[in-house]
Amino acid sequence: MLKRALRLVLSIVMLMAGVAAGSLATAGTAHADGCYTWNRTLSQGASGADVTQLQIRLSGYPGYGAVLAVDGQFGPATTAALKRFQSAYGLAADGVAGPNTFSKLYALQDDDCTPVHFDYSELNRCNSTWSGGAVSAATAKANALRTMWKLEALRHALGDQPIRVTSGFRSQSCNSAVGGASNSRHLYGDAADLGAGSHSLCTLAKQARNHGFNGILGPGYPGHNDHTHVDHRGSRFWSASTCGI
């Protein structure tokens, strides 16, 4: 009887442990699936939509003055960006995206695929539809997503202190209302104005050079003494003379 009682207790304990483990596994999967889940290890030579998703999240790690192409092709530049990301988060910097890399990315993304420290509302205080700019609403929103991942990398590099976004996407009417330039990158959804806070405007401008921003305008550039502007225009233009840029 005693042995049967012990076996019964042991069975109950094992069952409860299994339920708990299953709950944890389900929770982990649900978190990953809430946005995007990678189903294979990725390394140089791979291609496809899963590579594109990886590149979006690595947009902030191209190296000084560079921009990482989001083209679905895992080439040397993606390998180098991945190594920088892995090193930044204390992972083995082997340039191979496997379980440890994906686990870190899952921890960094919310269910809408934005990084945990930024959201669409910060990048669009103009309207709820992302329409009325220089590109389609879908393109503007996709551009803003890449900008947020670049800002996440910038934030991490600066000690994980908050970064304050004061302006993002603007429609033509919103841009005119604030006196924005007629060709403003804000119309494309790929620009963000950053205000001073945890970091000075010059610190933000200088560090942004490492995180995939072709456009950097800050103190010393006309109209930018109260914020640092970053964007991913087609060619590099950096100007923040007060900061030595």
Describe the model.
With about 240 residues, the chain is an alpha+beta fold. Helices cover about 40% and strands about 10% of the residues. It contains eight helices and five strands, in the order H-H-H-H-H-H-E-H-E-H-E-E-E. Strands 1-2-4-3-5 form a five-stranded mixed β-sheet, with helices on one face. The longest helix has about 30 residues. The termini are far apart. The N terminus is likely disordered.
The overall pLDDT average reads 89
Distance between the termini: 82 Å
> What is the H-and-E element order?
HHHHHHEHEHEEE
Helical stretch count?
Answer: 8
Q: Widest sheet: strand order?
A: 1-2-4-3-5
| Main beta sheet | 5 strands, mixed
Number of strands: 5
Kindly state the percentage of residues in helix.
40-55%
Structural class: alpha+beta
Low-confidence stretches: 1-31
Q: How much of the sequence is in beta strands?
A: 5-15%
Instruction: From the alpha carbons, calculate the radius of gyration and give it in angstroms.
Output: 22 Å
**Shape annotation:** globular
Q: What keywords describe this structure?
A:
245 residues; alpha+beta; 5-stranded mixed beta sheet; globular; disordered N terminus
Q: What's a concise summary of this model?
A:
With 245 residues, this protein is of the alpha+beta class. Helices cover 42% and strands 8% of the residues. The protein has a 5-stranded mixed sheet with strand order 1-2-4-3-5, with helices on one face.
